[in-house]
Every structure is written in C-alpha cells, then in structure tokens.
Amino acid sequence: MSAEHPPGTALAEPAVSPQTRPGGSIHRTKFGPRALLLAVAPLVLLAGVIAIIVATDAGLGSREVPPIETLSIQQVRLPEPGLIELTVVNDGPDPISIAQVLVDEAYWQFAAEPAGSLDRLGSATISIPYPWVSGEAHSVALISETGVLFEAAIPVAIESPRANRESFLRFALVGLYVGIVPVGLGMLWYPTLRRLGRNGLNFVLALTVGLLLFLVVSMWGEAQEIARAAVTALDAPVLIPLIALLTVVLLVVVGNSLRGKGTATDSGGLSLAYRIATGIGLHNLGEGLAIGAAFALGEVALGVFLVLGFTLHNVTEGVGIAAPVVREQPRLIHFAALTAVAGFPAILGTWIGAFVYSPFWTTVFFAIGIGAILQVVYEVGCLIARGQAKAGEPLMTWTTFGGVTAGIAVMYFTGLLVAA
C-alpha cells in the first residue's frame, strides 16, 4: 500500500529514458568514444576496400591492353619570335609521354617542363624552338610514345601579349570601351525613365527581364561551348547547371540572412540594382575573355570587331540596371559604383583572356553568372508582380509582355552585330 502524500506536495515525475522525452521527442546525447568509433569505422573500412581495389586492379590482375592516352591542349602561345609554347593536360586514366613533335609536318626538337611522363590530370608546358612566320598559319602535332597524335592549330601567327605594364593598360582600355562606357551611357537615360508613369515603368522593368533572359540563354550556350574545350576528366558541362543552381540558392540564403538582420528588404530598388549589375558584370567578364583570347591568338580584326559589337550591345544593360531605382533618388556615387560593378569585369576578362585563359575556370565563371542572373530575374519579376497587385492587375499584361519581348529583341538584334 502506497504512502499518502502530504497536502500541497507535488508528485514526483515518472522516470524518463535518457533517449526520449514525453511526446516522443528524441533527447540528443553527446558523442562518446564508442559513438565516435562507430562513426569513423565505416570510413576506415571504405578506405581499406579502395586500397585493395587499387592494389589488385579490382581483382582483374595486370591489364594486357594498350594504355588509354588522351591529351588536352589547353593553350598555344607564341611568347617570342622563334618559340612556340603549348600548355597540355593529361586527360586520360593512364600516364602519357610525349615522344615527338611535328610542326608544319616536319619533326622538330622540343623541351617539356616538367620532363618525363604525365600522370592523370598532370600538366606540362611544351616549348618548341621553331621559326614561325608572322601572319601565317602553322600546325603543331604532339606524338605520344604509343604513336597517338594530338593536333593544335595556329590560325594566324603573331607574338602573344606579354604581361607587362603597357599590355595591361592597352587591354584595360579595351575593357573600358566594352564594359564601363556603354553601361554608363545606358544609365544616362535615368532622368528620362523617372518621367514614366506606372505602365511605362512596368514596361522598362519587363524589358530588363527580357534583357536578362537573353543573357542567360546566351551564357548557357557559350558556357557549353567553352566546357567542351576544357579537360574532359573535369566534366565541366555537368558543372554548369549544378553551379548555377547552387549560386541561386546561395544568393537566396544570403538575401534571407540580410533581411533577418534588417540590412536589406525585398523591395529595396538600390539593392536589386546592385544585384542586376553583378549578374551583368559576370556576363561582361565572359565578353572580355572572348576579346582577350582573340587578340592572344593573333585574330586582331576579330578582336576589334568584337569590341565594336559588344560596345553597342551593352548600352541597353545600363537601362536595365537603372530601372529598379526609378522611384528612388540614389546618390551619384551609387551610379558610379553600379557602372563599375557591371563594367569592370570586362577589363578583368580581357586580362585573363590575353594572359592566363583557362576553359575550365571560364566555364565556372559563366555558370555563376547564369545563376546570379536567374536569381535577379526572379527578383525583378516579384517587383513587377507587387506593383501590378497594388493596381489590381495580373502580372502578365500587354505592357509586361511587350517589355519582355522588346528586351529580347533588342539584345538579339544588337547581338547580330557581334556575330555577323
């Protein structure tokens, strides 16, 4: 028989398992040595299995077939008269050694740095002392020890740009023409945009969406083309959608974090303008890469044509950046900063394209740009939707549809100036 409790005395709570709480919720326990060992054990066993697979060639024994040799020629440079340099990467699963070099169908001496065979994803610089002729085309072929041929072409032989003060200034001027100048000229329409009514502003914002959508599609195609020139083992084409998606998610997380701290708002036009400028800047980085690479390959006429085409093509970008701040009055310093954010990457791109071009990292930059612009398209779309909701109108009207169509058309037809 249980003892009676004095009045006012609370009954003791029943014992609760340390693993559970009332209601079925799980109580977290600290990791002890035994739990830590159980967590690490699968990793240790996995490492042991991998070691056995490597040591025994997966139980198949020694392979009696010829090695699989793949060599990716990443860059061809003419650093000085009488010298050709190739940057190569072993793109296959087996080591590879360069045994001979052909230049214009004649065997030639060469030096490799580092010397010897290249392991998987190993890189080397092949130097060939050859009296190339300025303005003429040349062909180069590398022959492995097993006789596999890897070819590269020099369309127009011209000395590659040197990384000195004069070259940096010249390419900076090219980037200035392509990026900063046209974006700044486009933003000069800001006073005109401020005189527009609600429908006019919606048209310009929808035009911005059209511009950005065209840039996304254009960058996607360019990224896929560049990715095919990257080292195959790195699987660059697969990274494009993944990096773009991660960029979108990252920007959303950052935006939510800033709003949680009270440092940003969804409706902040200036904040949105900076995000648009950032996305366009990543696109202009790609344009600079194309121009710098064209000059580095000796295609001067193509380089000059790209400068003219991109300059005309990029004027409309300034309108897209200025549109979100039409109902605000930002200080002049913000217009200068927005122009720099969108335009300076073109300068950086010309430097990279001329001196240290890399197909893989160019693909990564383009993928980041795609994600950034997609996130901005969503933000501008939300801005238009909120304005339409306040006016009691649907998102898609003839005004917004016309704006999107006009933005795509403007980018397409000015883009023909580059592709012609």
Overall SS class: alpha+beta
Please give the alpha-carbon distance between the first and last residues.
Answer: 100 Å
Total DSSP E strands: 8
Described by strand count, sense and barrel closure, the largest sheet is: 4 strands, antiparallel
Number of domains: 2
Low-confidence segments:
262-267
Radius of gyration: 30 Å
Number of helical elements:
11
Description:
The longest helix has 32 residues, at 198-229. This protein has 11 helices and 8 strands. With 420 residues, it is of the alpha+beta class. The protein has helices spanning 33-56, 165-187, 190-194, 198-229, 236-260, 269-296, 300-313, 315-322, 332-355, 359-390, 398-419, and strands spanning 71-80, 83-90, 98-103, 106-108, 111-113, 123-128, 138-144, 149-154. Helices cover 56% and strands 12% of the residues. The radius of gyration is 30 Å and the shape is flat. It has 2 domains: 71-154, Immunoglobulin-like, CATH 2.60.40.10; 165-419, no CATH class.
Defining key terms:
alpha+beta; 2 domains; four-stranded antiparallel sheet; 420 residues
Which helices and strands appear, and what pairs or packs with what?
Layout: H1 33-56, E1 71-80, E2 83-90, E3 98-103, E4 106-108, E5 111-113, E6 123-128, E7 138-144, E8 149-154, H2 165-187, H3 190-194, H4 198-229, H5 236-260, H6 269-296, H7 300-313, H8 315-322, H9 332-355, H10 359-390, H11 398-419
Antiparallel strand pairs: 1-2, 2-6, 3-4, 3-7, 5-6, 7-8
Helix pairs in contact: 2-6, 2-7, 2-8, 2-9, 4-8, 4-10, 4-11, 5-10, 6-7, 6-8, 6-9, 6-10, 7-11
